[in-house]
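> call design_seq(struct)
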């Protein structure tokens, strides 16, 4: 029962990490695109 109870926060953490990673990729592309446009 404890394992099932502890599984939910882990799933939430993984979801947040994936969202943050996608946001990071989006920001990285924006910075690279802006740098490329400036040169």
């Amino acid at each position: 029962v404890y394992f099932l109870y502890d599984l939910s926060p882990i799933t939430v953490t993984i979801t947040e990490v994936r969202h943050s990673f996608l946001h990071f990729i989006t920001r990285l592309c924006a910075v690279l695109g802006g740098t490329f446009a400036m040169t």
